[in-house]
Design goal:
alpha+beta; 39% helix; binds alpha-D-mannopyranose; 9 helices; eight-stranded mixed beta sheet
Amino acid sequence: MTIMHCHYLVLLLVVGISAVEVQRPRGVPLSKRPFYEEGKPFTCLDGSRTIPFNRVNDDYCDCQDGSDEPGTAACPNGHFHCTNAGFRPAFIPSSRVNDGICDCCDTTDEYNSGAACQNTCKEMGRKERESLQKLAEIAKEGFLLKQQLIQEAKRGLEEKKGKLSEVQVSKKDMEAKVESLRTVKETAEKPEKEAKERHLKAWEDQKAVIRMEKDKAKMAEVFAELDDDADGSVSMTELLTHSELDPDTDSSFTEAEAQGLLGGVDKVDSSAFETVWNGIKDKYISEAKADTTIETPPEENKEPAADSESEPYPDEDIPEDDDDEDNEEEEDEDLDDYKSPPTTDAQEKKPDEDEEGTMPPYDEETQQLIDVAQKARDEFDEAERALREVDDQIRNIEKEISFDFGPTAEFGYMYSQCYELTTSEYIYKLCPFNRVSQKPKFGGSETNLGTWGKWAGPDDDVHSVMKYEHGTSCWQGPNRSTTVKLTCGKETVVTSTSEPSRCEYLMEFITPAICKEPRNLDLTDGHDEL
Ligand code: MAN
């Protein structure tokens, strides 16, 4: 039953009480009575023929439109009118006249079938009146609530507009702050970068010295190893004992080849060995290691290879990052030990550690520059974050203000709310002006049944239907979409969902925001169906 019925029923009851039954042929509504004039020829209502009046309701169908038999079952397409005094008049198909089933609450359709019909019109009228009364009360209360919603919406809008201009002003200040902090940061980063580069360069130089010293020691070790007869020089014969030094890989290491490695002489002393060493160190296999497995290349051989590669030194940023991490990790234990790079006592090799060990910590002056720059960076980042936040706020308020929340913003209260309805299979969720979703009750992911599209009611009541579109696509079907029908009620609640066509959903949604002002009932409304 709709609210509209309420109007009608009150009219019906009032008129019903005072109405006088007007005599007319059986089954004829009052509005058609003038066409059935006692004793005068009757013209079928479609104008097709005219017959003597005694052929009206004579249980024989003369008119194509069935209009000569309003009170019998003779015409297949005829209609019988029941007055149903006390309730609502109705038309039933002629075929139901005297079929043994009581169709009219006033029993008039079963005048000759012997069916024991009871007149239930009064009772039905009473029940309908009661429920319409309830609906009317709901509508009245709903409409009052709607007035509150409108007031709240007005206040809310004012607040939002106020907030917007406030935030827009603070955005300007924040932009200026970000710019000045950017300058502070960039000014602090320049000396920081230079100091870090200086530190790195010093470390690179130091590593080169360490590498050179190691290489020298290695060279001396190899010289002693090769100098089998310990005469203070390495000879061609001694060199030949190391077949891995064969310059070509023809498996025969000849004297001439060995001599070539020695720079064209038969033997070299330790100082001349320096040049020879440069030529052989990549291939040389230490005698101590040669006996053991060959699969693992000896440690010594790795070294020059590593040296020849570009420095595995950390990027400019890496020590900084480590710095942060270390600071965080160690803060609790030792506040003094905040310097980067990390401790030297660590057993495991860190990624930024190479053969020469880890880079020594920054000197105090560099560390101070880093700290100052880091502080400037943090402050800049924080200001930027705050600016982004304000931007988001502005966007959100502008978005909310731009929605069509109804002629008096009465639907605005639903914004950023969600309303759920659980069915036997799914939990449906309607988040007005946002989206509709469906989640299987017993596990499984949520399906988007559409995002806010538009108001889609009829032209004279466009705010009575919402349309949500472009949801998750349906297998071999359209993208899911939902139509939400709004009806007046005291609460805001989804009362039903259905899927009239595959992946096209329908929701019934009750809200006070749609309640219309209760009308004064016009009892003189031209109703002549009694
Ligand atoms: C899921 C649900 C149903 C829908 C089918 C279509 O099971 O979203 O509502 O009909 O998919 O395949």
